[in-house]
Amino acid sequence: MEIWIVEEGKKRGPFETYQIRDRIEAGELAGDELSWHKDQSGWVKLREMDVFRSEFGKSWEELHRVLPPPLPSQPFPFLRFFARWFDVSLYLLLVFSLVRFIGHNLLEAAGGPFLYLYFLPFVFLEAAILHLTKTTPGKFLLGIRVVTPEERALSLQGALARSLRTYIVGLGLMVHPFLTGICHVYCIWYLMRFNVAPWDTVTKTRVRVVGPLFLPVLLFTVFFLIILVLLALVLRPTFIQMLEIVRELAA
After folding, report:
1. Spatial distance between the Cα atoms of 140 and 174, rounded to a whole number of angstroms
2. Which run of H or of E encompasses 52?
C-alpha cells in the first residue's frame, strides 16, 4: 500500500506501510500528520487510518521495547583514573594549603582524627558537582559525563551514594597509600572485565565519554602538572621533616 503524508506543509511520498510504521516507532511521526492512500476519499490523520490505529494505541514503553538497546559504553579505565586523580589532587591541594595557612603541622595532624576525616568533605563536594553539572573538573576536561540511563543528571541522593561507594571501594578511604593502590587495581580490573565500575553497577549510572579531543587533553595535562607541582611545594616542609625523623631514627 502506497501512502502519502503531509509534513511541514508539503506532500511527501509515496511510502510503504512498513516505512511509515518504522517512523512511528522511531518517534518521527506523531499521528496528527494528514495522510492518504488510493482507497480513501480524502485526507485523514495518520492515527485515524485503520492500518496504523493500533500503533498509536501503544504505550511509550511498548513502542520502544522493539528497538535495540544502546551500544555498551567503553570502559575507558585509564582515562577515568587520571580524571579521578585530577579531582583528588585538586582537593588535596586546597585542603593541605588551608591547613598550612592556619598554621597547623601536617605531619602532626596526620596522626589524629584528621587522617580519617580530611577526605570526607570531598565526597559531598563531588556529589553536589555531579548533581549540578553531570561532571567534575577532571572529567570535564577529558569529556566524561556521569548520567542516569535516561541521560539525565543524577539526583543528589544518587550522586552522594555513588561518591560514597567510590570513596570506600575505589579509594580505600584515602587513609593509606597501600590500601588505595589495592582498591585501584581491583577497580581497574573490574571495569575492564565488566565494562562498568563497581559503584556504577549499584547506582545504575552511566559514564559517557564525549571526547577526549587534543586540546582538552593538552589543557588537562598542563593543569594536572601545575596542580602536582603546587601540591609538592605545599608538602615540601612535611617531606623534609619526615626525612629528618628517619635520619634521627637511623642514627
Report:
1. 23
2. none
Please tell me the distance from the alpha carbon of residue 116 to that of residue 123, in angstroms, as a whole number: 13
pLDDT at 130 over 80: yes
Q: Is the dihedral of CA 39, 40, 46, 50 positive or negative?
A: negative
- Count each helix (H run) and each strand (E run) in the chain, helices first: 11, 6
Euclidean distance between CA atoms 158 and 134, whole angstroms:
12
CA 93 – CA 102 distance, rounded (Å): 14
Residue ranges per domain, the chain? 2-65, 77-250
Q: Give 47-53 contacts, CB < 8 A, sequence gap 24+.
A: 49/3, 51/1, 51/17, 52/20, 52/21, 52/24
Superfamily the domain 2-65 falls into: GYF domain (3.30.1490.40)
State phi, psi for 103 to the nearest 5 degrees: 90, 15
Q: Which of 65-74, 154-163, 187-196, 237-246 has the highest mean pLDDT?
A: 154-163
Indicate the residue type of 211: G
Secondary structure element (H or E) that encloses residue 155, with its range: none
Inter-residue contact 62 to 204 (CB < 8 Å): no
For 157-221, strand residue ranges (E) read 206-209
The dihedrals phi and psi of 111, each to the nearest 5 degrees, come to: -90, -5
Tracing cell 577529558 back to the chain, one arrives at 142
What amino acid occupies position 41?
S
